[in-house]
Amino acid sequence: MTSSALTDPDDLHLFYEDLVRTLRDRGVVCGITSGLACVHYGVAETTKDCDLLCHPDFFDALLDLLSGISIAGEACCYRGHISVPLSKPWHLGGWTSHFEWNTSPRVTLDVFGRAVRQSSPWEHDLSGLYAGMNVVAEMKRTDRAKDWPFITSLGSAMLRAGDSRGWLHLFDADVLEEMQQDCTIPGEMIELRPTLQLAARHDPNLRLALRAEQYFWQDLDRLRIRVYRHAVRPFVLALGREGISRDLPLRQQHEARLVCAQNTLQPKPLATYGSDRLIDEARNSTAALVKPELLKWLPNVSSHFTD
User: How many domains are contained in the chain?
Assistant: First the structure.
């Protein structure tokens, strides 16, 4: 499979969709998520990269396909020392693999075996070539402020499509009020997200509670990243010592990274660190930023950080 240089965003978009179609034709369970999914769902205008969810049972098929794709004469290769091998034990533990074609502009692909912050298996929530909006919204709960408007937009789109889980993703008080003009917040959504109690009774503390909830999710992501950054250091050093050339065929790069990972990379660093510990630390960090009475409205996020 070959392609000319992908300089137009629309061409890049089609390239990623064709990639998923080819994988699906081979029986691979996969779907596009994150930024490109936001473009697809109409809540973002453009993006330059692609995040792909791929079930770990099909990693070998994905690696075979990537090995055979050339763009403007450039073969696919692993990107940087921080990328872990495309291998099931590490992806079940929340790691991500990063690939690229060294073209101008550069074409990149980030692969997730497990959706970050997933509350249920992502493979049960696919829409065409894409991850469902609920999966995308959960993955967008990052420590980056720029991601949060997309979450609310996705939540609104879900509600308009009749998916009540959209109530879990509205972080704008005005949008929450607007949505209640057309439908009532279901009780099961209020149980999952306590701040919706404030929305249902039009409580003036809603805005502050939503801000506290956003801080909480951002702290969770920041602390999660810290755990993985600490765990990846021995692996990065080992890769540096090996000096694996990016000019090697992708399969050889993969095998060399796999050996380094087996010797230096902990498969499940978050499980070792402890999800309860992570959540407690995030609550304490949030408590330093908000009024104490707002903490009772923070959600139970355990299901998002357990296997």
Answer: 1
